[in-house]
Amino acid sequence: MRLTFLGVRGSTPAPGAEFVRYGGHTSCVAVSTDSASEPQLILDAGTGLRMLTPLLAPNAFTGSILISHLHWDHVQGIPFFAAGDRPDARADVFVPADGGLNGRDLVARFMSPPSFPITPEGLKGDWSFTAVETEAFTAEGFGVLPFEVSHKGGRTYGYRVSDASGSIAYVPDHAPAAGVDAAAREAMHGVDVLVHDAQFLDHERPRAVDYGHATIDEALALADEVHARSLVLFHHGPARTDIALDEISAEFGRDGFAVTAHEGMTIDVGGRR
Ligand SMILES: [Zn+2]
Ligand SMILES: [Zn+2]
């Protein structure tokens, strides 16, 4: 299994000269079977999803997109995903079930006039939208286990994704301080790579609590508790400059156990980068 990081920011994109090395796109991670295959399983559809089109070129996207939750920084890439918005594309989108709405209607709440020019039906190609509960399923040959995590404002999932080569857990928005239940611990347990919310530093803890996010110390502690084999610090604050992220990388790296995500980074699970 290979992970390709296409967007590593949280909250809102971060353009500008101080952000070019780590990148300004919001959350999106592409999963492929190995380094030779095209990504077919996508974790979140933040603005980083746009970066998938050149990776697939000239091909259309055919695959599945797992959405952690419906906050803007995790879905705004959907209507700008050129490789998915064409007649020969297929995209099966999975979102957390919430409020009894079906998947299409949950997506249409943020993607329809007057908030956006088109509805989900306006996307070209074969798109489906499914609201999922926290039950295991298979997508594009990968085992997928959604699990509920504490965040703020709408139901939020982490996803464990596994294949024969190993397992990862993707938990971009998570407030461990609000409690980590047994199902979430079990889902994260022993993964090769834990991709986790690391938006705040310890001195910013009041804001982390207020926004429903993790501090880097909390992400490290959780990775230890669930015996993750490595940690990716992810969902960087939009004001965190390249220099600040270099400092974070040096301070929290723990001899390679924790890596600070940047756009374009790849991780071969089982073999590492
Ligand atoms: Zn977010
Ligand atoms: Zn969020």
Query: Superfamily at the CATH H level?
Result: Ribonuclease Z/Hydroxyacylglutathione hydrolase-like
Sequence of secondary-structure elements: EEEHEEHEEEEEHEHHEHEE
Instruction: Please identify the top-level CATH class.
Output: Alpha Beta
> What is the alpha-carbon Rg in Å?
17 Å
Please tell me the total number of domains: 1
Q: Give the proportion of residues in helices.
A: 10-25%
- Neighbour order of strands in the largest sheet: 6-5-4-3-2-1-14
Which labels suit this protein?
26% strand, binds zinc ion, 17% helix, 7-stranded mixed β-sheet, alpha/beta, Metallo-beta-lactamase, Chain A, 273 residues
Structure overview:
The protein is α/β, with parallel strands linked by helices and 273 residues long. The chain has a single domain (2-268), classed as Ribonuclease Z/Hydroxyacylglutathione hydrolase-like (Metallo-beta-lactamase, Chain A, 4-Layer Sandwich), CATH 3.60.15.10. Helices cover 17% and strands 26% of the residues. The chain has 6 helices and 14 strands. The protein has helices at residues 52-56, 103-108, 182-188, 205-211, 216-225, 242-252; strands at residues 2-7, 28-32, 41-43, 62-66, 90-96, 126-132, 137-139, 142-148, 157-163, 166-171, 193-197, 231-234, 258-260, 266-268. α2 links the parallel β5 and β6 (126-132). The protein is globular and about 45 Å long. The N and C termini lie close together (11 Å). It binds zinc ion (2 copies). Residues 69, 71, 151, 173 line the site of one zinc ion (ZN).
